[in-house]
Design brief:
about 90 residues, mainly alpha, three-stranded antiparallel sheet, globular, Helix-turn-helix domain-containing protein
């Protein structure tokens, strides 16, 4: 049973692991995360990157064959959250 857990794909990556996957410097990824332009979860003073976020970036790049801008994706999510907050969470 432990072998299954050890071989399972992680649900989250450390910033260093995600940076390695994206082939950018960890400091670059930390900066983009802190600016709110890359999806991450903050656990006290640490950040982790959801594996699904990396999957979505790859899928979008593959589907469109073009430039994928995580800051645009983050801005769209922020706008949607702000809209839900102001509208009470539902269309009226």
């Amino acid at each position: 049973m432990n072998e299954k857990i050890e071989n399972a794909r992680p649900a989250f990556y450390t910033v260093r692991e995600a940076a390695r996957i994206l082939r950018v410097a960890p400091s670059t990824l930390y900066r983009v995360i802190r600016e709110g332009d890359f999806p991450a979860v903050q656990l006290r003073t640490r950040y982790v990157v959801p594996a699904v976020a990396l999957d979505q970036l790859l899928a979008e790049a593959t589907e469109t064959g073009g430039l994928v801008d995580p800051s645009r994706i983050a801005a769209e999510r922020r706008a949607a959250r702000e809209f839900e907050r102001k509208s009470g969470g539902a269309w009226r």
